[in-house]
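Exercise: predict the fold of this chain.
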Amino acid sequence: MKKHVFWLIELFIWLFIIVFIIFSIRFYNAKKAAKESTYHIFLQDIDGLMKGSPIKLMGVQVGYVTEINIIDDYMYVSFLISKEKVT
């Protein structure tokens, strides 16, 4: 009987540890996503630009293109600035 009780206690401890780790990772990812800024612009010519292309500021990559759509004669470009202290 005692082995059964210790086994259950150990199981609950491991479940608590696993749940704590999962929530810690989710919290970290949510906090990181909150620091990122998304911008939307309309351009007439985006020759060579595609989804995932890097966004550079003074030669340093600060983000990437997340979406490109055609609207009338313009291109709708959405990009994400992921580097801190740029915006």
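Check your answer against the key: Strands lie at 37-43, 54-57, 60-71, 74-81.
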